[in-house]
Structures are given as structure tokens and as C-alpha cells.
Amino acid sequence: MRKAICFGEVLWDIFPSGKVIGGAPLQVAARLSSLGVPSRIVSKIGNDAEGRTLLQNIQNLNLTGVYVKIDQNFPTGEAIVHFDDNGEAVYDVKSPAAWDNIDLSTEIEDAVGAADIFVYGSLAARSDVSRKTLYNLLEIAKYKVFDVNVRKPFCDMDEIIKLMRKADLIKLNEAELRYLAKHLGADNESLELNILFLSEYTETAQICVTRGTNGAVLLTGEQLYSHPGFEVDIVDTISSGDNFLAALLSKIMDCETEEDYNEALTFANALGAVAATKKGPTSKISKDEVLQLIQGQLS
Question: How many structural domains compose the chain?
Fold first, then answer.
């Protein structure tokens, strides 16, 4: 059975309507666990009421292990969320936070070394301590998955490039791909050409680009796979990308044939779409719901 470790931020996403638990690594770990991939989260919370409540919520997610330590110097993380004129979420991620201070331990090194999948993002590299820990763990990890997050002001392009070059799989959205490709000197209008450019530039064999309601494209080796997405009644898209990534990771390491990769991409798109029909980042999603959506498209 595959096992996963997700490294980085755990925090409260604070909306005008209230707060919910957040952080991409946490959401990916929670969904992976629900899909039968035992997963653990490595992070930190503050020694405060918000941290204690957050930890209780994390423990209720049925993760197989939680390496969430208490930091005595920094508060539990928060991100203030509002929406722009296009309805896209904009995050004000507070700094510093406890997850900026994730230090290395033998316990964490052993866990990462034993895991099959190691998921990390660019936000976790915004501080010296967590960044140093991350790079140490990347030397130990087996299959390394970089979830790109181009989020200003925490957008150090040199750091993002370094982290991409450490990855076996890079996951990003279409806007992030265009931004990175242009920054790196590519002059392509084509999504596929930008993916191939980024793969060659970073020497990364697998790249997955999510396209919102238009589905996703996956490069593995020299083969491109695509899926047009699913039409659903959207309620909340905040965690769709994280749910998509978890679903893809639950399948991709066992893929051998073109059919396998197409099925993995279909499953990931379907689960991400189902997540968008539900409120909240860690809503319950059954495999039956996902399979019904897939069968509905095929029929």
C-alpha cells in the first residue's frame, strides 16, 4: 500500500462568513487518506487557542499520523480570504506563522524516507527554517510532488525554479504555467508547448496543469494526456485543485499504459469536480459519487 507525507502550511482560512481549516498540504493529505492512501501531515501550530482547535480538527480527519508540533514563538497560521471582481479567491497569508518554523527531526526524516509520495508547495519555502527542513527532506524523499503556488508577495521565482527541479511531478494551474513560462523566456501561446518547455527547462518528466472547468493536461515522459473536465453545479471551488491532486496521486504511481494514465486523469478531474459541488475544504466525497459522474459523461 502506498503511503504519503504532505509538508507545509496548516492554517485557518478566514472568510467573511467564518473560518475553516486550510492549507493545501493538509487538504491533499486528508483526501489521499479518504481514498485509501495512508497520509501524514508535517507542520506546526502555535501555542494558542486557534492552534488547539485546529489540531483537534486535523485529528478528526482520520490521517494515519500527524507530525504537527507546537511552536512556542509564532502564532497559528491564518489567511484572510476575499474575492476579486472575477470571483477568484485572493489570500492574505499572515506572516510569520508557526508553520514557518518547521524544524527537522529524526522522526520526520524516518517518516519521509518510508513514504512513497512526498508532497510539498512553494509557500512552505518562504521562511529560512521551514525551507532548510524542506530541502533536507527532498534529499530523502522518493517520489517528490511539487504543488506550485504563485502567491504574492511570497513568490520568489528563483526558489520556485529550484523546487521545480527537485520534483518528479509538478502540478500547477494554467495561469501559473503562463506566468512561469513567460518569466523563463518562453514565447508560446500554446498550452502544450509551454508544458513541454517547462519540462525541458526543469528536467521534470511529469507535469500536470489544471484548467478549471476546462479539465487538465498531463505530461508524462513525452506523452500528453488531456481531459475536458466535467459540467457540474459549482458551489465552492476553493479546494478543487487540492482534491484533484490527491485523486491523481492515488492512481498515477500504478499507471503503466496509456489507458491507465487516461483513467487516472479522468478520475482526478471527476473528484475535483465533485468537490466543487460541496461546501468546505474537507467535505465527504464517496467513490460512488465520482464514478457516477464519470459514467454519466461516458453514457
Answer: 2
